[in-house]
Amino acid sequence: MVKICCIGAGYVGGPTMAVIALKCPSFEVVVVDISVSRIAAWNSDQLPIYEPGLDEVVKQCRGKNLFFSTDIEKQVSEADIIFVSVNTPTKTQGLGAGKAADLTYWESAARMIADVSKSNKIVVEKSTVPVKTAEAIEKILTHNGRGIKYQILSNPEFLAEGTAIQDLFHPDRVLIGGRETPDGQKAIQSLKDVYAHWVPEDRIISTNLWSAELSKLAANAFLAQRISSVNAMSALCEATGADVSQVSHAVGKDTRIGPKFLNASVGFGGSCFQKDILNLVYICECNGLPEVANYWKQVIKINDYQKKRFVNRLVSSMFNTVSGKKISILGFAFKKDTGDTRETPAIDVCKGLLGDKAHLCIYDPQVTEDQIRRDLSMNKFDLDHPVHLQPMSPSSVKQVSVVWDAYEAAKDAHGVCILTEWDEFKTLDYQRIFDNMQKPAFVFDGRNIVNVDKLREIGFIVYSIGKPLDPWLKDMPAVA
After folding, report:
1. Looking at residues 181-186, what average pLDDT do you find?
2. Does residue 391 lie in a domain region?
3. Do 311 and 477 meet the contact criterion of CB atoms below 8 Å apart?
4. Was 38 annotated as part of a binding site?
5. Which of the 8 DSSP states describes residue 321?
6. What is the C-alpha to C-alpha distance for residues 319 and 415, in angstroms, rounded to an integer?
7. Whether residue 227 is found in the same domain as residue 194
């Protein structure tokens, strides 16, 4: 029996291993993590992450050939294939601070594998890591190997949160990078054989190690670049009276470009885009490519500009102050169908409003009050670290309340901000919301999901990103 162990029970490790267990019933798959509470949640009815379809997959396999355990050393020593899916946060101090990936967790995982292994292993990078990480891991394992042979593979994940299970069932491609040696090719084939249980052979691509590592960073950088491009256009649309939805539709009809990732919004978020671009910038700088580094830096600058622009539009339209005013925040996750808040634009928007002394009332159907308060009180890069290494009791933000109903959030508010494109926000009774708000009543649609004309008929003053401006907003500064 093939035994697979995955170190790290997060957004990548948990769903990926659940699908492998479902599709490879003859394999034993164990997910391990040092967090006792996280493993307990994976073994309970309330999984630690929200992902459509995940519950069903886990419940079909758990206890049969899918297991969740904190006994890391035992499971690692018994495994044939070890996936490593640990955090790779951005460094906050030292060389490369603010850009380079912190490989502390990766290195400790590699040293632990070397300590406990008694048989040859295939070690698979599943985290998003900087180019040449595999080589570093290989050195640690080889120098501590005591005669045991290790093959290192890079198998970056391309799943998107919110559609992760479908992405795993029907991937565009599975990428496996390995050494161009007989043993390296043999290891690649072993991993190919796992995915071949359900992925067509022509979708399983093999490359050398560094190409696989760089392909992941490149894919995320290209996607983020598209979002920043359409967001840059949204600012121009507002200035000229064009409609960004019409522009992106026309552009997306060009088969060379395509329609995906061309929706203007308050900005991109998630655990990967910003982190991977910063990583790419650092690698370029280290390799003497400042022009290339500056090119990718601009993608992040436009993203930051978009969030700042949104806050400034809001404040300037409300008589240039939100001090003491209740602002309703609908949606805190970085996108719909996930509870993940890493790098969510909502954090920067909320902090911008709190800086102007607004009172925020926040509602998100999948994000807990504890998570929201953590996000608003902690330093930017702290959130990349596992929960047990984050500050235990983040300071409470007094001007924030969290509720479990959109109507409650909007009651007596001066303005409503839509920051996540949850489907339920499209079908809210906006007449009811308007009737219970302070007047003039504002809607700031950071995801372009509301019917602007209908809301204006009700009586709202509406700001929708990249759309022709409400007469109220004309001649007001977009950026302070």
Report:
1. 96
2. yes
3. no
4. yes
5. -
6. 12
7. no
33 is in an annotated binding site: yes
H/E element, 206: strand 204-208
The total number of structural domains in the chain stands at 2
* Beta-bridge partner residues of 207: 177
149 in a known ligand binding site: no
Residue 205, classed as helix, strand or coil, is: strand
Q: The domain spanning residue 396 has which CATH number?
A: 3.40.50.720
What average pLDDT does range 49-70 have in this prediction?
96
Q: Are strands 442-445 and 204-208 parallel, antiparallel or unpaired?
A: unpaired
In a domain, 212, yes or no: no
Q: Quick check: 324 pLDDT over 60? A: yes
Query: How far is the C-alpha of 360 from the C-alpha of 369, rounded, in Å?
Result: 13
* Number of alpha helices (DSSP H) and beta strands (DSSP E) in the chain: 17, 14
The model's pLDDT over 416-468, given as tens digits with 9 standing for 90+, comes to 999 999 999 999 999 999 999 999 999 999 999 999 999 999 999 999 999 99
- Are 162 and 225 found together in one domain? no
Q: Is 172 exposed, middle or buried (0-12, 13-18, 19+ CB in 10 A)?
A: exposed
Q: Could you tell me what percent of the chain has a pLDDT over 90?
A: 78
CA dihedral 221, 225, 231, 232 (to 10 degrees): 130
84: part of which helix (H) or strand (E)? strand 81-84
User: Domain containing 190: what range?
Assistant: 3-199
Q: Is 272 one of the catalytic residues?
A: yes
70 is in an annotated binding site: no
Query: Is residue 479 included in any domain, yes or no?
Result: no
Which residue among the candidates 6, 24, 272, 417 is catalytic per the annotation?
272
- The DSSP bridge pattern shows strands 174-178 and 204-208 to be parallel
What's CA 293's distance to the chain center, in Å? Answer: 22
Show which of 199, 232, 247 is a domain's final residue: 199
Cis? peptide before 48, omega within 30° of 0: no
What's the full length of the chain, in residues? 480
Residues 407 and 272 in one domain: yes
Cα gap 259→334, rounded to integer Å: 20
For Cα atoms 286, 91, 110, give the angle at the middle one, nearest 5 degrees.
Answer: 90
Q: 225 and 190, same structural domain?
A: no
12 is in an annotated binding site: yes
Q: 2, exposed or middle or buried, with CB in 10 Å at 0-12, 13-18, 19+?
A: middle
Q: Is 86 annotated as a binding residue?
A: yes
Let me know if residue 207 belongs to a domain: no
Ramachandran region, residue 320 (left: φ > 0; alpha: ψ -120 to 50; beta: rest): left
Contact, 318 vs 417, CB < 8 A? Answer: no
**Residue 46 DSSP code:** S
